[in-house]
Every structure is written in structure tokens, then in C-alpha cells.
Automatic annotation (TrEMBL):
Domain Glycoside hydrolase family 2 immunoglobulin-like beta-sandwich: 151-254
Gene from which this protein is expressed: uidA_4
GO function term, MF aspect, one: beta-glucuronidase activity
Gene3D superfamilies: Galactose-binding domain-like, Glycosidases, Immunoglobulins
Recorded superkingdom: Bacteria
InterPro entries assigned to the protein according to its UniProt record, in alphabetical order: Beta-gal/glucu_dom_sf, Galactose-bd-like_sf, GH, GH2_Domain-Containing, Glyco_hydro_2, Glyco_hydro_2_cat, Ig-like_fold, Ig-like_GH2
Family as reported in the entry's similarity comment: Belongs to the glycosyl hydrolase 2 family.
Coiled-coil region: none
Keywords: Glycosidase, Hydrolase
Domain Glycoside hydrolase family 2 catalytic span(s) in chain numbering: 258-554
Organism: Eisenbergiella tayi
Protein name: Beta-glucuronidase
Gene Ontology terms describing biological process: carbohydrate metabolic process
EC number: 3.2.1.31
Length: 559
């Protein structure tokens, strides 16, 4: 399952995932046994590769002819793609999609091979040992598409709330695969409403974007957490021969903006009640199936939350579809966590971060649930070189999407020099866990510094991580750390302080569920897990579940 709705009616597609592929490791000692492995999947869930780091091969046959497009939603962490034994593409980053377009392949059966590599090394600036597990494998869906002489790469839709109602603007990317000139048009519909017709002209092998004007949409209804109204947007490419291609996506009419210290959703002052959530499950690794995603969202909504932060990478688009449908606001961020200046001076850092941002925004632009873009969680925002990197990435986001706010979760207490760039100031704080300063005192000192001594003065303020660890089932009257009782006590004090802090737009609890971490983190993480979840890795509620539920449900989505 790739999306929760059909994305093409004219273009022929076939899902190559949701199937068994041939799998074997590469370069290991002894005979490399071939097994049947599920795709999507993570090889850490196979008995012989539980802790394997290195290269492995996935292969299968497919039937096609002519021009084709192979789309990979996620391969961890680097991918090399071969068709009939010949290299045809490669990609870095497990959490963003990529494609391979092949022209004029012969009719018949072809061999597809994907070599995945989850090893760490100097060529990787972002994929490093970290406080979450970096799994290996084809972890998200794979699609085969048959193309004609030209096709639609993507459509982006931007809604605008004006005094007289909703307006919208569409941008369509078209690629001409032929050597000849292409004359045609693109027809755009939203729901059952005709939106625009764009004439297009492309020279041979040219790729180009076309945009509409800002057009009225008097029939549009607002998307919100209370009423997540969605519309299918359909673009059809027409040539002299008729309908040649199409693309279908889904959009919602909502406005996100900041005004002074407030985040406004459709003009209302928004209160964030959220969770940080990793894509992680002991049965599936990072390749959660649809049912597991649904179950997570069921629990999150039961807890009274209205937002999820996708730490620390872009999420599977299938999960974003569910958030769109269920009215869950999403903070999505690029792939970077806890990088020092030394890490950020890796010669590949800027390029790999930039690629991740471009791929994330291009793929996920239309999701109304995404209300903010994040970058560089807990990185070197207190150094001049760090400041240069933050500035460049914020500017890149603005060039790709000038309509959503930007932020970065910082842990640089009173030393961050990058707060002038984003629209929203965000901090990760752990009073009652990593230090004993009273929560209200710590929060007040930080907030006063932001307002009086930093470049973040006058902006909305979010707590993007707060919480305490607890090992499921460890209960003691002593209320010591790692006990469920201590987590209850800590969260009560933390949430009370955050929600009573004037000028704070809300909070993300770290975290929704316990998750596996890289083996090298075992010394500071009991069970080689990050144990700060409100539920454990199997989604069993800890004592803190009801505490958070009472707190979140007592407050509305708006101030």
C-alpha cells in the first residue's frame, strides 16, 4: 500500500512492494544464502541479520516496455539501482523518495536489483550512530509506472485565505521525454470543480514548471483538526492525441501563519498538544504497515493530542495521508540530529541536507497536516559555522515553500545564535530528568533570555521535547528515576509549567513510544532503548498515559 487513495487513472502503475523479493547480504563470510524477504521491510527483523551493517541485495522480476519510471519511497540508507545488471540510479537518504526513469526498454521480463547499504562511513554526514536505530532495507513502497512521451512530475497546490474567501494557486512540473517539441495543455480539477487550464510548450527532452494565477475557490471548506476536509486535485496532460498522462494528489484549504507570538491556523490562535514519534516497532523496524500506523494514531488521538513531530526525518507518506484524514497537525523535519560543528563540516553535509530538504518538500508539499518545516535538531546552532548552515537551509526552505513557518528544535540553553532566522523558536528541555532545576524556574529563565537577549524576541515559542524515562513494569514506592511513578511525577510538573507559561504555544512530549537505539548508545540507554515513551515499544500504556491524557484533554486546540 503506497497511498490511501488512487494517484493515477490514465498512467498505468503497478506496485512492486507488498511482495517477497530475493534477499542476500553482500561481502559476508561464507555462502551468501538467498532468502525470500518482504518489501517493505527491515533486515534487522530477519534472524541472521538482526544487527547487520553493510550491503545487501534485493531483487525481483518485472514486466514492462517503452518508457518507465521506478519510484522508491525509501531505501535505507543508500541505494544503488540496477536493471538487467546495469546501474541506472543511486540515492542517499533513507527517508525521502527518489525515482529512476528509463527510456525505450525492450518489451518483456526484466531483472530489478536494489543494493541497500546501512553502514556508517565518511561519505555520510547524516547517517551516523544515533539515539535511534538506523535500519537497513527497502523500508517503504516501490512503484513501477509506464510513461508516454511526456509525463507530469508533480503538482503543488497552495491555498490562500482572503477576506472574500478561499483562493488557490497550482504549479505543475512537466517533463518531455521525446526529442521533439511538445505542444499541449494541462487541465486541473479540484474535487468536481474545474480549476484551470494551462497551455504548455516544451522543447525536446525539456522539463519545466507551469503555474496558474491565484484563482477563487468559492466552494472550498476549511481543513482543521475538528473538520479535516480534503479534496482530490487532478491534473491531466493533453496533447493532439488526447489525454496523455495524469497525476492525482490530495489537498486541504487551511492557512498557517505567525502573528507576533502566536501561531494561527485559519486565523485562530493554535495550541499544540503533541508527541515526538519515531518510525519504530519491534516487529517491523521502521517499516510500519498501515495497520500499525493506524493503531499509533488511535492511541495518540485517545491521548487528546493534536500534533506529531516526525523526529528526526521525513516520514512515510502513507502516515502523512492518515494525519491529513484525521486532522493531526505535523511538524516534519529534515534528517539531522545532534550533529556537532565537526560533523557539520563533513564535506558532504550541506549537499546531503539540501537534497533531503528538496526531496521532502517536493514530495510532501500538498499535505495540509504539515504546518511547519523543521531542520537540524540539536545541532551546532551556537557557532558561527553552524549559523551559516542554518541560514542556508532556512533560505532553501523559503525558496521551496514560502508559506509555511520554519523552526529548529534547539538544546543550546541561552547560547543559540540562530534564532533570528525561523518564524518559530523551539527548544528541547528536560528539567526533572537531566538536571534538578525546578521546571518553572528553568522555563522562565530560558523564555526571558529569548525575549530580552536573543534574536528570537517576539516570536512564537514551542517546547519541542520534554519528558522523563520509565521502563514499562518497573514500579516502586521510592519514585526513583526509570520507574513509572517517577515519570508520572515529572510529566505532571512539566506539563503544568508549560501550559501555564504565557507566550508558549504548546509542547511535544518526548516521546510517544519507546524505540530501539544504535548499539553504541547502550551505556546511557537501558535495554538499548530510548525509554521515554508514554507507551512502550509494543504500545502498552505506562502509568503516565492517563496523566498526559487528562492534561491534553482538559485543553482545547486553540487559546
Amino acid at each position: 500500500m503506497i497511498r490511501t487513495f488512487e494517484t493515477h487513472k490514465i498512467r498505468k502503475t503497478a506496485e512492486l512492494s507488498s511482495a517477497l523479493w530475493n534477499f542476500h547480504t553482500i561481502g559476508t563470510q561464507g555462502e551468501e544464502a538467498v532468502i525470500q524477504a518482504p518489501v517493505p521491510g527491515c533486515w534487522e527483523n530477519y534472524p541472521d541479520t538482526v544487527s547487520y551493517r553493510g550491503q545487501a541485495s534485493y531483487s525481483r522480476e518485472f514486466e514492462a516496455k517503452g518508457n518507465i519510471r521506478l519510484e522508491f519511497k525509501g531505501v535505507s540508507h543508500t541505494a544503488s539501482v540496477l536493471v538487467d545488471g546495469k546501474p541506472v540510479g543511486s540515492h542517499y537518504n533513507a527517508y525521502t523518495p527518489f525515482d529512476v526513469v528509463l527510456k525505450d526498454i525492450r518489451p518483456g521480463i526484466h531483472q530489478l536489483e536494489v543494493i541497500a547499504d546501512n553502514s556508517f562511513g565518511p561519505d555520510s554526514a547524516l547517517h551516523v550512530p544515533n539515539d535511534y536505530q538506523s535500519y537497513g532495507g527497502i523500508s517503504r513502497g516501490v512503484v513501477l509506472e509506464e510513461l508516454g512521451e511526456a509525463y507530469l512530475s508533480w503538482i503543488h497546490f497552495t491555498p490562500f485565505l482572503r477576506k472574500d474567501g478561499w483562493y488557490g494557486k497550482a504549479e505543475i512540473r512537466v517533463r518531455n521525454l521525446s526529442s521533439g517539441r511538445l505542444d499541449g495543455s494541462v487541465e486541473v480539477e479540484i474535487g468536481k470543480n474545474s480549476f484551470a487550464v494551462l497551455p504548455i510548450v516544451l522543447e525536446g527532452e525539456e522539463e519545466k514548471s507551469f503555474s496558474t494565477e491565484e484563482l477563487p475557490c468559492p466552494w472550498a471548506e476549511c481543513w482543521s483538526p475538528e473538520s479535516p476536509v480534503l479534496y482530490l486535485i487532478t491534473a491531466v496532460l493533453r496533447t493532439a492525441d488526447g489525454a496523455a498522462d495524469d497525476i492525482i494528489d490530495r489537498v486541504g484549504f487551511r492557512e498557517i501563519r505567525t502573528e507576533g507570538k502566536d501561531i494561527l491556523l485559519n486565523g485562530r490562535k493554535l495550541r499544540i498538544k503533541g508527541f515526538c514519534r519515531h518510525e519504530d516497532h519491534p516487529q517491523f523496524g521502521c517499516a510500519l504497515p498501515f495497520s500499525a500506523m493506524q493503531h499509533d494514531l488511535m492511541l495518540i488521538k485517545d491521548l487528546g493530542a493534536n500534533s506529531i513531530r516526525t523526529v528526526h526525518y521525513p516520514n512515510d507518506e502513507l502516515f502523512l495521508d492518515l494525519c491529513d484524514e484525521q486532522g493531526i497537525l505535523v511538524w516534519e523535519e529534515n534528517h539531522a540530529r545532534g550533529l556537532s560543528e565537526e560533523n557539520m563540516r563533513n564535506p558532504h553535509f550541506k549537499q546531503q541536507c539540501g537534497d533531503c530538504i528538496r526531496e521532502m518538500i517536493t514530495a510532501h508539499y500538498n499535505h495540509p497536516s504539515i504546518y511547519i518545516w523543521g531542520i537540524l535538531n540539536e545541532c551546532a546552532s551556537d557557532t558561527e559555522y553552524g549559523r551559516e548552515c542554518y541560514s542556508e537551509q532556512y533560505e532553501l526552505i523559503k525558496s521551496l515553500d514560502p508559506y509555511r513557518p520554519r523552526s529548529s528544535a534547539s538544546c543550546r540553553f541561552k547560547t543559540d545564535i540562530c534564532l533570528g532566522y525561523p518564524e518559530v523558536v523551539s527548544y528541547n528541555i528536560y528539567p526533572k530528568w537531566y538536571h534538578d532545576v525546578p521546571v518553572e524556574d528553568y522555563l522562565d529563565e530560558l523564555y526571558q533570555w529569548i525575549q530580552n537577549e536573543s534574536e528570537g524576541t517576539g516570536k512564537p515559542f514551542l517546547i519541542t521535547e520534554i519528558g522523563a524515562g520509565a521502563i514499562y513494569g518497573y514500579r516502586t514506592p521510592a519514585h526513583v528515576k526509570w520507574s513509572e511513578e517517577y515519570q508520572v511525577q515529572a510529566l505532571k510538573e512539566q506539563l503544568q509549567a508549560v501550559f501555564s507559561r504565557e507566550g508558549c504555544s504548546g509542547v511535544y512530549i518526548w516521546q510517544f513510544c519507546d524505540v530501539r537505539v544504535c548499539d553504541s548508545w547502550f551505556g546511557s540507554r537501558p535495554r538499548t532503548m530510548n525509554n521515554k515513551g508514554i507507551v512502550d515499544e509494543y504500545r502498552r500504556p505506562k502509568l503516565a498515559y492517563e496523566v498526559v491524557k487528562d492534561s491534553y484533554r482538559s485543553l482545547g486546540n486553540y487559546f
